[in-house]
From TrEMBL:
Name of the protein: Uncharacterized protein
Ranges where the record places region Disordered: 181-200
Entry keyword Iron: no
Pfam families in UniProt: TPR_19
Signal peptide stretch: 1-19
Skewed-composition ranges (Basic and acidic residues): 189-198
Keywords on record: Signal
Length: 212
């Protein structure tokens, strides 16, 4: 059940262009590339192991840079993706931990990684089962996804995730609009691997909507 609920929960982020790379930038970029490889280039039966290794790496980065939001965001993203790969009730502990990390990151820098906190929170609330199993809540999902769009209105991730919520609600025309915006999103320097994977998801959802 959890696997189904998280079937498309592959949370991405917008790193944005950096004037000069710092050790933190490099560590974050490495996590991003590792996540993209595990998400889009790793067989399903090997993903859980890949994400578990990334969890350990993300925890180390977060410990090395206390008081920074970016490592917390990536740790949350990786935990969420690990939950998808794991499936079952055991995945709930991971998504709860991810939510806590995102809330901590929000307290540090709400706009970190171009609004990725709200992309990730919104998608968690949209995809995690509701009470009594989980904390899923469509109203909270909408609230956070709209916040993400306010910060990054042209981004591929916020438009895709909001379109997915709209599609679930049967708002096909509005969902198509945001999917088209996602396809037109500017490329993210250094995130070519994640962009390619996300664009494939956008096209898949758009094709599904066009069949209705």
């Amino acid at each position: 059940m959890i696997r189904t609920a998280l079937a498309i929960l592959a949370l991405g982020v917008s790193l944005g262009a950096q004037a000069a790379n710092t050790p933190l930038d490099d560590a974050i970029a490495a996590l991003g590339h590792g996540w993209a490889k595990a998400s889009y280039s790793t067989p399903d039966d090997q993903q859980e192991k890949a994400f578990d290794a990334l969890i350990s790496r993300s925890e180390s980065v977060a410990k090395a840079y206390p008081g920074r939001a970016e490592p917390l965001i990536w740790e949350a993203i990786i935990l969420s993706s690990a939950a998808k790969a794991q499936g079952g009730l055991g995945a709930l502990s991971k998504v709860r931990a991810a939510r806590k990390l995102l809330e901590q990151a929000e307290g540090i820098d709400p706009t970190a990684l171009n609004g990725s906190i709200y992309n990730s929170l919104g998608t968690l609330y949209a995809k995690v089962p509701g009470w009594p199993l989980g904390f899923g809540d469509k109203d909270n999902a909408r609230k956070y996804l709209l916040k993400a769009l306010q910060i990054n209105p042209d981004g591929i991730d916020p438009n895709y995730f909001y379109a997915d919520l709209l599609a679930e609600e049967g708002k096909t025309a509005e969902a198509r609009t945001h999917l088209e915006r996602a396809l037109a999103a500017p490329p993210r320097p250094g995130r070519e691997d994640a962009d390619a994977g996300r664009r494939a998801q956008v096209k898949q959802l758009l094709a599904k909507l066009n069949e209705r």
